[in-house]
Amino acid sequence: MVHIVVVGCGRVGSELAMQLSEEGHSVVIVDKNRDAFRRLTRFHGKTLLGSGFDRDILFQAEASQADALAAVTSGDNTNILCARIARDNYHIKNVVARIYDPQRADIYMKLGIPTVATSLWTTQQVKRWMMPSDESIEWTDGASTLHLVERIVPDEMAGRPLTNFNIGDNVRVVGLIRGGQGRVNIEGMFAQEDDMLEFIVTHQGLDELKALLEGGAR
Description:
Helix 3 links the parallel strand 4 and strand 5. The chain starts with a strand and ends with a helix. Helix 1 crosses helix 5. The protein folds into two domains: 128 residues, Rossmann fold (3-Layer(aba) Sandwich), CATH 3.40.50; 78 residues, Alpha-Beta Plaits, CATH 3.30.70. By secondary structure, it is an alpha/beta fold. The chain has six helices and eleven strands. It is 27% helix and 25% strand. The longest helix has 14 residues. The strands form two sheets. The chain has a six-stranded parallel β-sheet, sandwiched between helices. A five-stranded antiparallel β-sheet has the order 7-8-11-9-10.
């Protein structure tokens, strides 16, 4: 179980908070509008009325003990401010901010904050950034022999050629999401911090990929 703070109880924030809560995690969700909490129809965590960058609210949210924070309000500036405070003041390791202006993505990535443009945002994507150890599978072929999985590049593996993430006949990198933008032409590219890699793997390759990423993160 991990402790997670979600700032913003709109459609995305509420869905994220409910999913994480149902998975058994400790979840605190913050919003300035009391009525927003009505969206939480299956939620077992804590709600706080206020701002996600207010010191008292963050104290009540136990931000200093949080493993992850997602800033998903309707304002880019608010989300980035919350994310920077979470990372710089509370040293929360896994922080992600939702943005509406994709042209700002590169700027925020240079600040070390993963961002996802609203048009590309999914609850599953943000969970990848918040919980890099997530072992979920996105797609499996009809015979259950091939799987598509998404994994975050461990910080310690940044700078390596993407070809280094291929393993024998069982693991192949087939795509990359960087700064909220996906691409499949990855020849000659190198991994960066907070990159999301798309892999096609065999059933055996799931364990081999896990061992590779966990070994690189040590």
